[in-house]
Design brief:
The chain is an all-alpha fold and 426 residues long. The chain contains 16 helices and two strands. A hairpin with a 4-residue loop joins strand 1 and strand 2. The C terminus is likely disordered.
Length: 426
Amino acid sequence: MLLGPYTGIDPRRLVLLAVLFVIAESISTMVDSGKTGISPSSSASLAAVVLVGPVGAAIVGFSSCLVLRRQGAVKRLFNGAQFALAGYAGGHAFQLLGGGRGVPDPDSFPWIVLPFTVATLVHTVVNALLVAGLMWCLGVVRFQRPRKVRWRPLATLELSSIGYGMLGLFIAAIWNAVGAFAVLLVLLPLFIARWAFDQYVAEQRAHDATLATLCQAVETKDYYTRGHCVRVSKASVMIAEELGLHAERVHTIRYAGMLHDVGKLGVPTKVLQKPGKLTEEEFAAIQLHPMRGFEIVREIGFLDEALEGIMHHHERMDGRGYPMGLAGKEIPEFARIISVADAFDCMTSTRSYRNARSVEEAFAELRRGSGPQFDPEMVDALIRAVGRDGWTTPDVVEPPDDDVAEVAQQDHDDPSAPLRVAGEKE
């Protein structure tokens, strides 16, 4: 920006584009549980590439420092420099391929689309590389051994950004006809898009709050598995992502993991917290909890495929599980994933009657049960994911009072426990 040149840049046009950029960047919406932000500001940045050239686009991008959000000075300066570099690079790519600076005339179309598309891609790539470099420097990501890349969610976000960028050509094209009013014509759909994103995020948060309440109800009744639902959900997501499942299915299996034990709400508390071994009748009540869970949440529309995981997560590959005795691939994929995640968390959690096993011991047990009890593909996926990302074992959960300190001589719901079949004494 210091080097210029500034000759031929309309200062009024430059200021208006900077204002549009700041407003668009200020209305970015957080998605993916607050981890990712989508902003329509790239449309203003790429309009500047056409209307005011590389240096002007750099100035427009650097105006991110004035964004109307709470940010520290370092973050503001980084964002400003990031957008300035992306705009500058995109502007030069546009001009190198024959694009001219200023309002495009009708004769420029459709040929101007090619250099503008390249400028949009350069702008996107520079932004992505700078953010990736920052995350690497901060230790958030590490580029180590090769792993399966989940392209679909990444492509969805990048295509959204490119779509906003292409809107910049529309701004530049109508500038000659309506002048500064082009800014207002663009702001309205941007605000509508932001409102639509907000509605989606609010709906997701409402879903999460509903499920969290159900999990809390289960864990209040069955206190020695406090936090179990959340951890099973996390492990299930790790397996699903390692298998390369579509982002929407990964989101759904997170719900399934959280609610896999919701059927315990229909099991008598004295059975869940019974000290000592279960009778045949009591064990039968435990075996009903997957079906009770299905009945409790079956009318929640957004659960979709998660219902199968809740219903069948205690089935075994050899057909000796419950509630329906399904075998092999008859067992829904979600149920096979949750079965492994459930067993892994049970084994690595401390109970009042035993200490937690180490992660390595749990892996050995999962491998031993791989085939007859667990799907080998799911076991291998969990071992790879935990080996790469690690696993934090939970703290010991103390019973609510001393009278039940000697609770349960067995884990009523530990999938790694020896198989019990009808007619056997426990």
